[in-house]
Amino acid sequence: MYTLRVTKASSHKLQSRFCWVYRNEIAACDAAIQNGEIVRIESHGGAFFGVGYYNAHSEITVRILSFEERNIDAAFIARRIERAVHKRAAMREHSDAYRIVHAEADMLPGLMADYYNGYLSLQINTLGMERLRTWVIDALVVLLKPKGIIEKSDPKMRRKEGLEPAGGVIWGEVPQRVVMQERGVAFEVDLHAGQKTGFYLDQRRNRHVVSGYVRSGMRVLDCFCNAGGFGLHALREGASVHFVDMSDSALSQVERNLTCNGFAPQKITKADAFDFMESQVASATRYDLIVLDPPPFAKSKREVEGAMKGMGFLLASAIKLLDDQGIVALFSCSHHVGIGELLTLALHVGMQEGVMLEVLELLRADADHPYILSIPNTDYLSGVVLRTVAV
How far separated are the first and last CA of the chain, in Å rounded? Predict the structure, then answer.
């Protein structure tokens, strides 16, 4: 096994169990190391830190697989995946779809795997994990006995790693659509063309929490609705729901999911959310609960200012559309705009709009998408549920 030494600054981070070594944090390494190979990581003083894989193509040059001296082989990968599966056993109580492996949060960087009612959706996004592909698939097949596995690897991430795009059915058979259940609500998931690995599983608990504030007869707006997750849970509680998204495929999913659950037809609008909210404010329309779940506005720190402006506009518009005691759930799926930023934004917008905002809930990703304290980027989904209070 080749050896790589890191700088003093990197040593400090690795002591806290941070899992990445950036290119500029490498002090010395064997010249013969090939991209994708396993390396032994040492401190600037020569102390052992961990074992990981190396790729000079990537700014994140080393991703750690273990902080103990381990032989990275098929048995190691199988144990890692088995541990990840075991700690999610409780998820089965509420759903037959959940994340099995969540990359660094399960000490399997570059690998994500979701289970959908007997089928697996897989992402292999790094060169190091690509080299371990056969062991990964073998372990998943033995442990979960899926009917089929489809690969939905991220082409942008793979290009950054010097990899060609990869996708399609790689084991067994995978139908075009799979029906999954989540707390009694059915969702038809297109594993071949759906978002990410198929569905936004990370919002599972949040859909349940938000639906707990819904009462029969409420008027609900599900904006950036995607497959209609929040709205469908609200319908189960007796609300009427207006679904809004700019994607034809997303709105087609909403229609299929309404049918799948036997719900009555609802209002569905194809529109840019910003234009839609502006038009609604100009109308006499009012809602009792509004869900704002936009795509990531801040993929980097330099985009935070623009993201906050955009989310501020959405929140201000939502407040205008709510009656007194109305509720808004606002989400950010960016590590750079977390709970603290959302609360600061809400305070500012509340003052601007002349209302007090009561904080009902602070939300994060469900337990199958773990947040590891030493890996800040695993805290990427944040939400606040607010209730308007007239002053």
Answer: 67
Query: What is the tens place of the pLDDT at every residue in 194-226?
Result: 666 668 999 999 999 999 999 999 999 999 999
- pTM attached to this predicted model: 0.93
pLDDT digits (tens, 9 = 90+) for 283-339: 989 999 999 999 888 778 888 899 999 999 999 999 999 988 999 999 999 999 999
The yes or no reply on domain 74-176 and CATH 1.20.120.1200 is: no
Outline where DSSP puts E strands in the chain. Answer: 2-6, 20-22, 26-29, 38-42, 48-54, 60-66, 97-102, 111-116, 119-124, 148-151, 168-172, 177-182, 185-190, 219-223, 240-245, 267-270, 287-292, 322-332, 355-364, 382-390
Is residue 126 packed enough to be buried (19+ CB in 10 Å), middle (13-18) or exposed (0-12)?
buried
Out of 1.10.10.60, 3.90.79.10, 3.30.1700.10, 3.40.50.150, the CATH code matching 200-390 is 3.40.50.150
pLDDT at 391: 74
Distance in angstroms (rounded) separating the CA atoms of residues 194 and 155: 15
Active site residue 333: yes
138: tokens are 């073998």
Domain 2-66 of CATH type 2.30.130.10: yes
Which of the following is catalytic: 29, 223, 225, 333? 333
